[in-house]
Design brief:
The chain is α/β, with parallel strands linked by helices. It has 19 helices and 10 strands. The protein has a 10-stranded mixed sheet, with helices on both faces.
Length: 496
Amino acid sequence: MANISNFVKRIRDIMRNDAGINGDAQRIEQMSWMLFLKVYDTKEADWEFAEEDYKSIIPENCRWQNWGHEAKPGEGMTGDTLLDFVNNTLFPTLKKLEVTPETPVKKAIVKTVFEDANNYMKDGVLLRQVLCVIDELDLGNYEESHAFGDIYESILKELQSAGSSGEFYTPRAVTEFMAERINPKLGETVADFACGTGGFLTSWLKQLEDKTNSAEDVLKYSSSIFGIEKKPFPYTLCITNMLLHGIDVPRIYHDNSLQYDVLNYTDDDRFDVILMNPPYGGNEKSDIKSHFPSDLASSETADLFMSVIMYRLKKNGRAAVIIPDGFLFGTDNAKVAIKKKLLTEFNLHTVVRMPSSVFAPYTSITTNILFFDRPKEQGTADNPATKETWFYRLDMPEGYKHFSKTKPMKIEHFEEARIWWENRQEIEEDGFPKAKKYTNKELTDLGYNIDLCGYPHEEEEILAPKDLIARYEEKRASLNAEIDSVLADITRILGE
Protein backbone atom coordinates (compact mmCIF):
# COMPACT_ATOMS: atom_id res chain seq x y z
CA MET A 1 0.00 0.00 0.00
CA ALA A 2 2.91 2.33 0.71
CA ASN A 3 4.08 1.89 -2.87
CA ILE A 4 0.70 2.98 -4.22
CA SER A 5 0.77 6.44 -2.62
CA ASN A 6 4.15 7.04 -4.24
CA PHE A 7 3.21 5.51 -7.60
CA VAL A 8 2.94 8.57 -9.87
CA LYS A 9 6.04 10.27 -8.45
CA ARG A 10 8.21 7.17 -8.95
CA ILE A 11 7.19 6.82 -12.59
CA ARG A 12 7.63 10.54 -13.25
CA ASP A 13 11.14 10.48 -11.78
CA ILE A 14 12.17 7.56 -14.02
CA MET A 15 10.65 9.02 -17.20
CA ARG A 16 12.32 12.39 -16.68
CA ASN A 17 15.63 10.69 -17.49
CA ASP A 18 14.39 9.35 -20.84
CA ALA A 19 15.24 11.52 -23.89
CA GLY A 20 12.10 10.31 -25.71
CA ILE A 21 9.60 11.75 -23.22
CA ASN A 22 8.82 15.38 -23.91
CA GLY A 23 6.59 16.91 -21.24
CA ASP A 24 3.70 15.84 -19.04
CA ALA A 25 1.26 14.96 -21.83
CA GLN A 26 3.63 12.36 -23.35
CA ARG A 27 4.53 11.02 -19.91
CA ILE A 28 0.89 10.36 -19.01
CA GLU A 29 0.13 8.98 -22.48
CA GLN A 30 3.09 6.58 -22.13
CA MET A 31 1.85 5.52 -18.71
CA SER A 32 -1.71 5.01 -19.98
CA TRP A 33 -1.09 2.15 -22.43
CA MET A 34 1.12 0.33 -19.90
CA LEU A 35 -1.52 0.69 -17.18
CA PHE A 36 -4.17 -0.55 -19.60
CA LEU A 37 -2.18 -3.75 -20.31
CA LYS A 38 -1.53 -4.33 -16.59
CA VAL A 39 -5.21 -3.84 -15.68
CA TYR A 40 -6.33 -5.92 -18.67
CA ASP A 41 -3.98 -8.74 -17.62
CA THR A 42 -5.61 -8.78 -14.16
CA LYS A 43 -9.06 -8.89 -15.78
CA GLU A 44 -8.00 -11.75 -18.05
CA ALA A 45 -6.97 -13.80 -15.01
CA ASP A 46 -10.54 -13.37 -13.69
CA TRP A 47 -12.09 -14.26 -17.06
CA GLU A 48 -9.90 -17.37 -17.39
CA PHE A 49 -11.05 -18.50 -13.94
CA ALA A 50 -14.74 -17.87 -14.73
CA GLU A 51 -14.80 -19.16 -18.33
CA GLU A 52 -13.42 -22.62 -19.08
CA ASP A 53 -12.88 -21.92 -22.77
CA TYR A 54 -11.59 -18.31 -22.44
CA LYS A 55 -8.95 -17.50 -25.05
CA SER A 56 -7.09 -14.18 -25.03
CA ILE A 57 -7.16 -12.04 -28.18
CA ILE A 58 -3.54 -11.12 -27.35
CA PRO A 59 -0.89 -13.63 -28.56
CA GLU A 60 0.90 -15.29 -25.63
CA ASN A 61 4.24 -13.53 -26.18
CA CYS A 62 2.51 -10.12 -26.02
CA ARG A 63 0.47 -10.72 -22.86
CA TRP A 64 1.70 -8.60 -19.94
CA GLN A 65 2.47 -11.64 -17.80
CA ASN A 66 4.97 -12.85 -20.41
CA TRP A 67 6.96 -9.65 -21.02
CA GLY A 68 5.92 -6.85 -18.61
CA HIS A 69 5.98 -9.06 -15.52
CA GLU A 70 9.24 -10.30 -14.00
CA ALA A 71 8.95 -13.72 -12.29
CA LYS A 72 12.13 -12.86 -10.40
CA PRO A 73 13.87 -9.46 -10.14
CA GLY A 74 16.33 -8.96 -12.99
CA GLU A 75 14.98 -11.82 -15.15
CA GLY A 76 12.77 -9.73 -17.47
CA MET A 77 13.73 -8.33 -20.87
CA THR A 78 15.52 -5.01 -20.61
CA GLY A 79 17.71 -2.60 -22.58
CA ASP A 80 17.75 -2.82 -26.38
CA THR A 81 16.10 -6.27 -26.33
CA LEU A 82 13.03 -4.86 -24.53
CA LEU A 83 12.93 -1.74 -26.71
CA ASP A 84 13.11 -3.88 -29.87
CA PHE A 85 10.30 -6.14 -28.59
CA VAL A 86 7.98 -3.23 -27.69
CA ASN A 87 8.57 -1.28 -30.92
CA ASN A 88 8.79 -4.14 -33.42
CA THR A 89 6.65 -6.91 -31.94
CA LEU A 90 4.22 -5.66 -29.27
CA PHE A 91 2.91 -2.53 -30.98
CA PRO A 92 2.65 -3.93 -34.55
CA THR A 93 0.91 -7.08 -33.20
CA LEU A 94 -1.68 -5.24 -31.09
CA LYS A 95 -2.38 -2.65 -33.79
CA LYS A 96 -3.11 -5.45 -36.30
CA LEU A 97 -5.24 -7.75 -34.12
CA GLU A 98 -8.05 -9.32 -36.13
CA VAL A 99 -11.38 -7.91 -34.99
CA THR A 100 -14.75 -8.73 -36.57
CA PRO A 101 -18.31 -7.63 -35.70
CA GLU A 102 -18.56 -10.92 -33.76
CA THR A 103 -15.52 -10.14 -31.57
CA PRO A 104 -16.69 -9.51 -27.95
CA VAL A 105 -16.30 -5.89 -26.84
CA LYS A 106 -13.97 -6.84 -23.99
CA LYS A 107 -11.54 -8.29 -26.55
CA ALA A 108 -12.00 -5.74 -29.36
CA ILE A 109 -11.02 -2.85 -27.05
CA VAL A 110 -7.38 -4.00 -27.10
CA LYS A 111 -6.97 -3.18 -30.78
CA THR A 112 -8.89 0.10 -30.44
CA VAL A 113 -6.67 1.20 -27.54
CA PHE A 114 -3.49 0.55 -29.53
CA GLU A 115 -4.59 1.96 -32.90
CA ASP A 116 -3.23 5.41 -32.01
CA ALA A 117 -0.92 4.56 -29.08
CA ASN A 118 2.81 5.30 -29.17
CA ASN A 119 5.91 4.20 -27.31
CA TYR A 120 7.92 7.36 -26.67
CA MET A 121 10.64 5.89 -24.43
CA LYS A 122 14.07 5.42 -26.01
CA ASP A 123 15.94 3.87 -23.09
CA GLY A 124 15.10 0.18 -22.58
CA VAL A 125 16.61 0.08 -19.08
CA LEU A 126 14.38 2.97 -17.93
CA LEU A 127 11.41 1.33 -19.67
CA ARG A 128 11.99 -1.84 -17.62
CA GLN A 129 12.13 0.25 -14.44
CA VAL A 130 8.72 1.81 -15.24
CA LEU A 131 7.25 -1.63 -16.02
CA CYS A 132 8.48 -2.91 -12.65
CA VAL A 133 6.77 -0.05 -10.78
CA ILE A 134 3.49 -0.72 -12.61
CA ASP A 135 3.80 -4.48 -12.11
CA GLU A 136 4.08 -4.05 -8.34
CA LEU A 137 0.36 -3.17 -8.26
CA ASP A 138 -1.65 -6.12 -6.97
CA LEU A 139 -4.94 -5.34 -8.67
CA GLY A 140 -6.29 -8.80 -7.83
CA ASN A 141 -6.34 -7.66 -4.20
CA TYR A 142 -9.64 -5.81 -3.56
CA GLU A 143 -8.21 -3.27 -1.11
CA GLU A 144 -5.19 -2.48 -3.25
CA SER A 145 -7.30 -2.29 -6.41
CA HIS A 146 -9.70 0.09 -4.66
CA ALA A 147 -6.78 2.21 -3.39
CA PHE A 148 -5.36 2.34 -6.90
CA GLY A 149 -8.71 3.68 -8.13
CA ASP A 150 -7.97 6.78 -6.03
CA ILE A 151 -4.42 7.00 -7.40
CA TYR A 152 -5.84 6.75 -10.92
CA GLU A 153 -7.98 9.79 -10.11
CA SER A 154 -4.78 11.69 -9.30
CA ILE A 155 -3.28 10.64 -12.65
CA LEU A 156 -6.37 12.00 -14.43
CA LYS A 157 -6.15 15.24 -12.46
CA GLU A 158 -2.65 15.72 -13.80
CA LEU A 159 -4.21 16.08 -17.24
CA GLN A 160 -5.25 19.55 -16.17
CA SER A 161 -1.64 20.67 -16.33
CA ALA A 162 -0.75 18.62 -19.41
CA GLY A 163 -1.44 21.28 -22.02
CA SER A 164 -4.51 20.86 -24.20
CA SER A 165 -5.13 17.43 -22.70
CA GLY A 166 -6.80 19.23 -19.80
CA GLU A 167 -10.04 19.39 -21.73
CA PHE A 168 -10.67 15.75 -20.84
CA TYR A 169 -10.92 16.23 -17.09
CA THR A 170 -13.97 17.64 -15.29
CA PRO A 171 -13.34 18.26 -11.55
CA ARG A 172 -14.66 15.32 -9.56
CA ALA A 173 -16.66 17.59 -7.24
CA VAL A 174 -18.71 18.74 -10.23
CA THR A 175 -19.35 15.26 -11.68
CA GLU A 176 -20.33 13.97 -8.23
CA PHE A 177 -22.78 16.82 -7.61
CA MET A 178 -24.41 16.29 -11.01
CA ALA A 179 -24.68 12.50 -10.59
CA GLU A 180 -26.05 12.96 -7.07
CA ARG A 181 -28.77 15.38 -8.27
CA ILE A 182 -29.70 13.00 -11.12
CA ASN A 183 -30.09 10.17 -8.53
CA PRO A 184 -29.41 7.05 -10.67
CA LYS A 185 -31.65 4.01 -10.42
CA LEU A 186 -30.68 0.40 -11.13
CA GLY A 187 -31.82 -0.61 -14.59
CA GLU A 188 -31.30 2.86 -16.06
CA THR A 189 -28.71 3.61 -18.74
CA VAL A 190 -26.45 6.66 -18.76
CA ALA A 191 -24.55 8.15 -21.70
CA ASP A 192 -21.73 10.64 -22.14
CA PHE A 193 -21.09 11.45 -25.82
CA ALA A 194 -17.71 13.11 -25.15
CA CYS A 195 -16.69 11.02 -22.17
CA GLY A 196 -13.00 11.89 -21.91
CA THR A 197 -11.46 9.81 -19.14
CA GLY A 198 -14.85 8.70 -17.81
CA GLY A 199 -15.36 11.04 -14.85
CA PHE A 200 -19.14 11.30 -15.23
CA LEU A 201 -19.48 7.55 -15.72
CA THR A 202 -17.48 6.75 -12.56
CA SER A 203 -19.54 9.27 -10.56
CA TRP A 204 -22.69 7.54 -11.85
CA LEU A 205 -21.30 4.13 -10.81
CA LYS A 206 -20.39 5.48 -7.38
CA GLN A 207 -24.01 6.58 -6.87
CA LEU A 208 -25.25 3.12 -7.91
CA GLU A 209 -22.82 1.10 -5.77
CA ASP A 210 -24.84 1.30 -2.54
CA LYS A 211 -27.98 0.20 -4.40
CA THR A 212 -26.34 -2.99 -5.74
CA ASN A 213 -27.24 -5.98 -3.52
CA SER A 214 -27.75 -9.03 -5.74
CA ALA A 215 -26.23 -10.75 -8.78
CA GLU A 216 -29.04 -9.27 -10.88
CA ASP A 217 -28.23 -5.82 -9.52
CA VAL A 218 -24.55 -6.28 -10.43
CA LEU A 219 -25.57 -7.11 -14.00
CA LYS A 220 -27.69 -3.93 -14.20
CA TYR A 221 -24.83 -1.91 -12.67
CA SER A 222 -22.23 -3.19 -15.15
CA SER A 223 -24.45 -2.72 -18.22
CA SER A 224 -25.64 0.79 -17.34
CA ILE A 225 -22.93 2.91 -18.98
CA PHE A 226 -22.30 4.10 -22.55
CA GLY A 227 -19.58 6.48 -23.70
CA ILE A 228 -18.06 7.90 -26.86
CA GLU A 229 -14.67 9.61 -27.04
CA LYS A 230 -13.11 11.00 -30.19
CA LYS A 231 -9.49 11.33 -29.06
CA PRO A 232 -7.38 8.18 -28.59
CA PHE A 233 -5.48 9.14 -25.44
CA PRO A 234 -8.47 9.89 -23.15
CA TYR A 235 -10.28 6.91 -24.72
CA THR A 236 -7.52 4.60 -23.41
CA LEU A 237 -7.67 6.21 -19.97
CA CYS A 238 -11.46 5.80 -19.91
CA ILE A 239 -11.37 2.11 -20.86
CA THR A 240 -8.81 1.49 -18.09
CA ASN A 241 -10.96 3.50 -15.68
CA MET A 242 -14.02 1.35 -16.44
CA LEU A 243 -12.07 -1.91 -16.06
CA LEU A 244 -10.81 -0.67 -12.68
CA HIS A 245 -14.42 0.02 -11.65
CA GLY A 246 -15.48 -3.55 -12.35
CA ILE A 247 -17.02 -2.97 -15.80
CA ASP A 248 -15.82 -6.08 -17.66
CA VAL A 249 -17.52 -5.09 -20.92
CA PRO A 250 -17.04 -1.31 -21.21
CA ARG A 251 -19.41 0.12 -23.82
CA ILE A 252 -16.97 2.92 -24.59
CA TYR A 253 -16.44 3.68 -28.28
CA HIS A 254 -13.62 5.50 -30.06
CA ASP A 255 -15.78 7.65 -32.33
CA ASN A 256 -17.10 11.16 -33.05
CA SER A 257 -20.63 11.75 -31.73
CA LEU A 258 -21.19 14.64 -34.14
CA GLN A 259 -20.78 12.71 -37.39
CA TYR A 260 -24.20 11.03 -37.41
CA ASP A 261 -27.50 12.47 -38.63
CA VAL A 262 -29.49 13.32 -35.50
CA LEU A 263 -32.81 12.78 -37.31
CA ASN A 264 -31.94 9.10 -37.81
CA TYR A 265 -31.83 8.25 -34.10
CA THR A 266 -34.46 5.76 -32.92
CA ASP A 267 -35.55 4.70 -29.42
CA ASP A 268 -32.74 2.11 -29.43
CA ASP A 269 -30.21 4.98 -29.62
CA ARG A 270 -31.64 6.85 -26.62
CA PHE A 271 -30.77 6.76 -22.93
CA ASP A 272 -32.52 7.27 -19.59
CA VAL A 273 -29.88 9.74 -18.41
CA ILE A 274 -27.25 11.90 -20.11
CA LEU A 275 -24.43 13.35 -18.02
CA MET A 276 -21.73 15.32 -19.79
CA ASN A 277 -19.48 18.30 -20.27
CA PRO A 278 -19.45 18.86 -24.05
CA PRO A 279 -16.25 20.29 -25.57
CA TYR A 280 -16.66 24.03 -26.12
CA GLY A 281 -14.77 26.78 -27.87
CA GLY A 282 -14.27 24.68 -31.00
CA ASN A 283 -15.71 25.33 -34.45
CA GLU A 284 -17.07 22.54 -36.64
CA LYS A 285 -16.83 22.32 -40.44
CA SER A 286 -19.80 22.22 -42.80
CA ASP A 287 -19.65 18.42 -43.21
CA ILE A 288 -20.32 18.04 -39.46
CA LYS A 289 -23.03 20.72 -39.48
CA SER A 290 -24.80 18.85 -42.30
CA HIS A 291 -25.83 16.16 -39.79
CA PHE A 292 -28.18 18.63 -38.05
CA PRO A 293 -31.42 20.38 -39.08
CA SER A 294 -30.50 23.70 -40.72
CA ASP A 295 -31.93 25.86 -37.91
CA LEU A 296 -29.81 23.98 -35.29
CA ALA A 297 -26.62 23.79 -37.39
CA SER A 298 -24.37 25.98 -35.26
CA SER A 299 -20.62 26.03 -35.92
CA GLU A 300 -19.98 25.97 -32.15
CA THR A 301 -19.18 22.47 -30.85
CA ALA A 302 -21.08 22.80 -27.54
CA ASP A 303 -24.26 23.90 -29.38
CA LEU A 304 -24.15 20.83 -31.62
CA PHE A 305 -23.71 18.55 -28.63
CA MET A 306 -26.79 20.13 -27.02
CA SER A 307 -28.76 19.03 -30.09
CA VAL A 308 -27.30 15.50 -29.93
CA ILE A 309 -28.31 15.32 -26.26
CA MET A 310 -31.88 16.40 -26.99
CA TYR A 311 -32.25 13.86 -29.83
CA ARG A 312 -30.74 11.00 -27.77
CA LEU A 313 -32.60 11.46 -24.45
CA LYS A 314 -35.44 9.01 -23.83
CA LYS A 315 -38.96 10.11 -22.96
CA ASN A 316 -39.10 10.52 -19.17
CA GLY A 317 -35.28 10.82 -19.33
CA ARG A 318 -33.15 13.31 -17.38
CA ALA A 319 -30.01 15.21 -18.27
CA ALA A 320 -27.36 17.29 -16.52
CA VAL A 321 -25.03 19.13 -18.89
CA ILE A 322 -22.22 21.69 -18.42
CA ILE A 323 -22.48 24.60 -20.84
CA PRO A 324 -20.37 27.82 -21.14
CA ASP A 325 -21.87 31.28 -20.57
CA GLY A 326 -21.91 31.90 -24.34
CA PHE A 327 -24.78 29.43 -24.69
CA LEU A 328 -26.86 31.36 -22.13
CA PHE A 329 -26.37 34.86 -23.55
CA GLY A 330 -25.98 33.92 -27.22
CA THR A 331 -28.75 35.27 -29.45
CA ASP A 332 -27.48 34.20 -32.87
CA ASN A 333 -30.01 32.19 -34.88
CA ALA A 334 -28.72 28.68 -34.09
CA LYS A 335 -28.39 29.30 -30.33
CA VAL A 336 -31.88 30.79 -30.17
CA ALA A 337 -33.32 27.81 -32.10
CA ILE A 338 -31.58 25.32 -29.76
CA LYS A 339 -32.79 27.14 -26.63
CA LYS A 340 -36.30 27.45 -28.05
CA LYS A 341 -36.37 23.68 -28.67
CA LEU A 342 -35.00 23.06 -25.16
CA LEU A 343 -37.61 25.26 -23.46
CA THR A 344 -40.50 24.02 -25.61
CA GLU A 345 -39.98 20.26 -25.94
CA PHE A 346 -38.01 19.72 -22.71
CA ASN A 347 -38.41 20.81 -19.11
CA LEU A 348 -35.39 22.98 -18.23
CA HIS A 349 -36.09 23.11 -14.50
CA THR A 350 -32.74 24.28 -13.05
CA VAL A 351 -29.66 26.24 -14.12
CA VAL A 352 -26.74 26.34 -11.66
CA ARG A 353 -24.26 29.15 -12.40
CA MET A 354 -20.70 28.15 -11.41
CA PRO A 355 -17.70 30.39 -10.54
CA SER A 356 -15.26 31.13 -13.37
CA SER A 357 -12.27 29.30 -11.90
CA VAL A 358 -13.90 25.85 -11.53
CA PHE A 359 -11.92 24.59 -14.55
CA ALA A 360 -8.70 26.48 -13.78
CA PRO A 361 -6.02 26.31 -15.03
CA TYR A 362 -7.46 24.89 -18.27
CA THR A 363 -9.97 27.66 -18.89
CA SER A 364 -11.32 30.73 -17.10
CA ILE A 365 -14.58 30.75 -19.09
CA THR A 366 -17.56 30.67 -16.72
CA THR A 367 -19.69 27.53 -16.97
CA ASN A 368 -23.17 26.45 -15.93
CA ILE A 369 -25.00 23.20 -15.24
CA LEU A 370 -28.30 22.72 -17.05
CA PHE A 371 -30.70 20.18 -15.52
CA PHE A 372 -33.60 19.17 -17.75
CA ASP A 373 -36.07 16.34 -18.39
CA ARG A 374 -37.78 15.04 -21.50
CA PRO A 375 -41.48 14.57 -20.68
CA LYS A 376 -43.51 11.63 -21.94
CA GLU A 377 -45.69 14.00 -23.96
CA GLN A 378 -43.66 16.39 -26.10
CA GLY A 379 -44.24 20.06 -25.38
CA THR A 380 -45.45 22.44 -28.08
CA ALA A 381 -45.28 26.20 -28.70
CA ASP A 382 -48.78 26.55 -27.21
CA ASN A 383 -48.08 24.18 -24.33
CA PRO A 384 -44.30 24.21 -23.66
CA ALA A 385 -42.79 21.51 -21.43
CA THR A 386 -40.81 24.12 -19.47
CA LYS A 387 -43.26 26.01 -17.27
CA GLU A 388 -40.67 27.66 -15.04
CA THR A 389 -36.90 27.59 -14.61
CA TRP A 390 -34.93 28.18 -11.44
CA PHE A 391 -31.55 29.92 -11.70
CA TYR A 392 -29.12 29.54 -8.80
CA ARG A 393 -25.71 31.19 -8.48
CA LEU A 394 -23.03 29.17 -6.71
CA ASP A 395 -20.66 31.69 -5.11
CA MET A 396 -17.01 31.15 -4.19
CA PRO A 397 -16.68 29.54 -0.75
CA GLU A 398 -15.47 31.66 2.13
CA GLY A 399 -11.70 32.03 2.20
CA TYR A 400 -11.31 31.37 -1.56
CA LYS A 401 -10.56 34.10 -4.06
CA HIS A 402 -10.51 31.54 -6.87
CA PHE A 403 -10.00 27.80 -7.37
CA SER A 404 -6.62 26.51 -8.52
CA LYS A 405 -4.66 23.30 -8.94
CA THR A 406 -3.57 23.46 -5.29
CA LYS A 407 -6.99 24.65 -4.04
CA PRO A 408 -9.49 22.80 -6.26
CA MET A 409 -13.25 22.77 -5.91
CA LYS A 410 -14.50 20.18 -3.40
CA ILE A 411 -17.86 18.44 -3.15
CA GLU A 412 -18.59 20.26 0.14
CA HIS A 413 -18.55 23.55 -1.78
CA PHE A 414 -21.89 22.44 -3.25
CA GLU A 415 -23.46 22.01 0.22
CA GLU A 416 -25.26 25.36 0.08
CA ALA A 417 -26.66 24.47 -3.35
CA ARG A 418 -27.80 21.04 -2.07
CA ILE A 419 -29.73 22.66 0.80
CA TRP A 420 -31.31 25.22 -1.55
CA TRP A 421 -32.22 22.47 -4.07
CA GLU A 422 -34.43 20.68 -1.53
CA ASN A 423 -36.22 23.86 -0.39
CA ARG A 424 -36.16 26.36 -3.26
CA GLN A 425 -36.60 30.00 -2.45
CA GLU A 426 -35.71 33.22 -4.21
CA ILE A 427 -32.59 34.85 -2.74
CA GLU A 428 -31.30 38.39 -3.22
CA GLU A 429 -27.86 39.56 -2.11
CA ASP A 430 -26.54 43.15 -2.34
CA GLY A 431 -29.46 44.06 -4.61
CA PHE A 432 -28.71 41.25 -7.09
CA PRO A 433 -30.65 37.98 -7.49
CA LYS A 434 -28.74 34.86 -6.35
CA ALA A 435 -31.67 32.48 -6.85
CA LYS A 436 -34.74 33.32 -8.89
CA LYS A 437 -37.57 31.58 -10.73
CA TYR A 438 -38.54 32.66 -14.26
CA THR A 439 -41.57 31.60 -16.27
CA ASN A 440 -41.29 30.28 -19.82
CA LYS A 441 -42.90 33.51 -21.09
CA GLU A 442 -40.33 35.65 -19.26
CA LEU A 443 -37.48 33.68 -20.84
CA THR A 444 -39.11 33.91 -24.27
CA ASP A 445 -39.66 37.65 -23.89
CA LEU A 446 -35.95 38.01 -23.13
CA GLY A 447 -35.26 36.66 -26.63
CA TYR A 448 -33.82 33.50 -25.05
CA ASN A 449 -30.95 35.45 -23.50
CA ILE A 450 -30.98 33.43 -20.28
CA ASP A 451 -27.84 34.94 -18.73
CA LEU A 452 -29.67 35.38 -15.39
CA CYS A 453 -28.58 35.38 -11.72
CA GLY A 454 -25.00 35.84 -12.91
CA TYR A 455 -22.07 37.29 -11.03
CA PRO A 456 -22.73 40.99 -10.36
CA HIS A 457 -19.07 42.12 -10.39
CA GLU A 458 -18.16 41.05 -13.89
CA GLU A 459 -15.43 43.66 -14.17
CA GLU A 460 -13.35 41.66 -11.69
CA GLU A 461 -13.24 38.65 -14.02
CA ILE A 462 -9.85 38.34 -15.69
CA LEU A 463 -9.79 35.98 -18.66
CA ALA A 464 -6.83 34.36 -20.38
CA PRO A 465 -6.25 35.83 -23.88
CA LYS A 466 -7.66 32.74 -25.66
CA ASP A 467 -10.79 32.79 -23.47
CA LEU A 468 -11.14 36.56 -23.92
CA ILE A 469 -11.15 36.16 -27.71
CA ALA A 470 -13.70 33.32 -27.50
CA ARG A 471 -15.94 35.45 -25.24
CA TYR A 472 -15.58 38.44 -27.60
CA GLU A 473 -16.51 36.34 -30.65
CA GLU A 474 -19.60 34.98 -28.89
CA LYS A 475 -20.73 38.46 -27.86
CA ARG A 476 -20.07 39.77 -31.38
CA ALA A 477 -22.14 36.94 -32.91
CA SER A 478 -25.01 37.77 -30.52
CA LEU A 479 -24.76 41.50 -31.27
CA ASN A 480 -24.73 40.83 -35.02
CA ALA A 481 -27.85 38.68 -34.65
CA GLU A 482 -29.62 41.48 -32.76
CA ILE A 483 -28.62 44.06 -35.41
CA ASP A 484 -29.85 41.73 -38.18
CA SER A 485 -33.16 41.32 -36.36
CA VAL A 486 -33.62 45.10 -35.96
CA LEU A 487 -32.69 45.72 -39.63
CA ALA A 488 -35.18 43.06 -40.72
CA ASP A 489 -37.91 44.74 -38.68
CA ILE A 490 -37.07 48.18 -40.19
CA THR A 491 -37.04 46.74 -43.72
CA ARG A 492 -40.41 45.09 -43.12
CA ILE A 493 -41.93 48.34 -41.76
CA LEU A 494 -40.55 50.38 -44.69
CA GLY A 495 -41.96 47.85 -47.12
CA GLU A 496 -45.49 48.11 -45.72
